[in-house]
């Protein structure tokens, strides 16, 4: 299909925003948005056209717990323990991530040192870096964090999994639920504004999970594949 | 809730200011939750969509651009996409009892902006079946097939109503 044709472009964008574009067609459209500025801009236009209708619904105040959960998930406040005591819960949470982390750390450190020495072309110096390795210590992604940006580069060692995406997570030091930093690139590089959580949440580890296309369906990692330590530089 | 009021709060949120984010939540959460509840019907899912939306707003405040609409429209876009994802994930089949006329903009917006007034006029100007089909899809999150069941018309007819309705809406809004 020729997506540069205005009529087709508008028809697809309108039905995407309305929600009637479903299944494979919806996923293909999301991929198109990632690669075409024109498609993205057409989508934004239709968001402006249609989503104003959402503002006409009578407001309904959510329960107070909604705000509490948001603050917990963002690491603003401690998460209330359910059965175990808080200290014990934290300990368990930390232990869950500790095994793979120790394994990944040594390899990351070595690669990070090599890598930073060969990568002087940064608009802003990275303050923290990490390397995500597979089980055989092959580096898959190189991650740089500066005050303003998160930059992720995939390596040629990375093999995409059909119908799946990889998602990057912060594992907070306080044992709170992991916080998503977004879907990782399967090739090339991705540069985005640094999420606030990178500055506001003490970070135990970064983790990469395998997810359905588009990222985690429920806001939590589906299958954790790798973890790595952030290294201050 | 005007864009002029929300935009500074969003800017401060992008700088990591938690009190601005809390104000943004206070001013907009009832609208965002209402959109989620209308689509998802189930309280726990609407709460989940609202939580995910504000977490995304905290992380992505800096990615807002005016070309994506007003701040509130942009936030509504985020919650609608999240609600559609949750509907798909939980395999929700929508059986709405929608009263299409209840949510017409003029009834719930006593002092709408010029943009919103125009949108309301253009939607009012659609043919009845077109407006009804678009309302069902937008407010209820219904698929083409679900709109078919609701309006008891063939799939081809429903698709045509929606497509032509959207085209008419664009022509009207571009005038």
TrEMBL record, chain A:
TM regions (residue ranges): 100-118
Domain Anti-sigma K factor RskA C-terminal: 104-222
Organism expressing this protein natively: Paraglaciecola algarum
Entry-linked InterPro entries: RskA_C
Transmembrane helix is among the record's keywords: yes
Pfam families tied to this protein: RskA_C
Protein name: Anti-sigma factor
Keywords tagged on the record: Membrane, Transmembrane, Transmembrane helix
TrEMBL record, chain B:
Protein's UniProt keywords contain Transcription regulation: yes
Keywords per UniProt: Sigma factor, Transcription, Transcription regulation
Domain called RNA polymerase sigma factor 70 region 4 type: residue spans: 117-169
CDD domains (UniProt xref): Sigma70_r4 (cd06171)
Superkingdom classification of source: Bacteria
RNA polymerase sigma-70 region domain sequence ranges: 24-90
Tagged with keyword Nucleotide-binding: no
Residues annotated as signal peptide: none
Alphabetical list of Gene3D superfamilies matching this protein: 1.10.1740.10, Winged helix-like DNA-binding domain superfamily/Winged helix DNA-binding domain
Matching InterPro entries: RNA_pol_sigma-70-like (IPR039425), RNA_pol_sigma-70_dom (IPR014284), RNA_pol_sigma70_r2 (IPR007627), RNA_pol_sigma70_r4_t2 (IPR013249), RNA_pol_sigma_r2 (IPR013325), RNA_pol_sigma_r3/r4-like (IPR013324), WH-like_DNA-bd_sf (IPR036388)
NCBIfam families xref list: sigma70-ECF
Family listed: Belongs to the sigma-70 factor family. ECF subfamily.
Protein name: Sigma-70 family RNA polymerase sigma factor
Lineage of origin: Bacteria, Pseudomonadati, Pseudomonadota, Gammaproteobacteria, Alteromonadales
């Amino acid at each position: 299909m020729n997506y540069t044709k205005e009529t087709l472009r508008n028809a697809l964008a309108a039905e995407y925003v309305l929600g009637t574009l479903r299944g494979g067609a919806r996923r293909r459209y999301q991929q198109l948005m990632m690669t075409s500025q024109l498609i993205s801009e057409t989508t934004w236009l239709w968001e402006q056209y249609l989503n104003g209708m959402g503002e006409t619904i009578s407001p309904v105040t959510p329960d107070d717990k909604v705000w509490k959960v948001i603050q917990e998930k963002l690491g603003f406040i401690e998460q209330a323990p359910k059965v175990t005591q808080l200290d014990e819960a934290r300990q368990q949470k930390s232990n869950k991530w500790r095994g793979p982390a120790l394994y990944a750390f040594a390899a990351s450190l070595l690669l990070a040192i090599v890598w930073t020495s060969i990568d002087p072309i940064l608009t802003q110096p990275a303050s923290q870096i990490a390397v995500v390795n597979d089980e055989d210590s092959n580096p898959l992604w190189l991650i740089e964090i500066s005050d303003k940006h998160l930059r992720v580069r995939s390596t040629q060692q990375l093999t995409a999994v059909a119908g799946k995406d990889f998602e990057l997570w912060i594992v907070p030091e306080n044992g709170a639920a992991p916080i998503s930093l977004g879907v990782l690139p399967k090739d090339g590089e991705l540069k985005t504004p640094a999420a606030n959580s990178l500055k506001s949440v003490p970070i135990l580890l970064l983790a990469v999970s395998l997810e359905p296309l588009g990222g985690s369906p429920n806001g939590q990692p589906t299958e954790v594949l790798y973890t790595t330590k952030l290294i201050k530089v | 809730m005007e864009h002029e009021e929300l935009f500074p709060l969003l800017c401060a949120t992008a700088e990591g200011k938690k009190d601005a984010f809390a104000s943004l939540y206070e001013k907009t959460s009832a609208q965002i939750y209402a959109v989620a509840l209308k689509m998802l019907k189930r309280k726990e899912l609407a709460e989940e969509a609202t939580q995910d939306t504000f977490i995304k707003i905290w992380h992505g405040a800096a990615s807002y651009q005016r070309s994506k609409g007003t701040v509130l429209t942009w936030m509504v876009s985020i919650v609608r996409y999240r609600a559609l994802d949750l509907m798909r994930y939980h395999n929700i089949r929508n059986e709405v009892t929608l009263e299409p006329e209840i949510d017409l903009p003029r009834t719930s917006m006593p002092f709408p902006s010029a943009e919103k007034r125009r949108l309301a006029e253009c939607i009012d100007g659609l043919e009845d079946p077109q407006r009804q089909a678009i309302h069902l899809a937008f407010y209820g999150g219904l698929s083409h097939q679900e709109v078919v069941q609701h309006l008891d018309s063939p799939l081809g007819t429903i698709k045509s109503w929606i497509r032509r309705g959207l085209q008419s809406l664009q022509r009207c809004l571009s005038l």
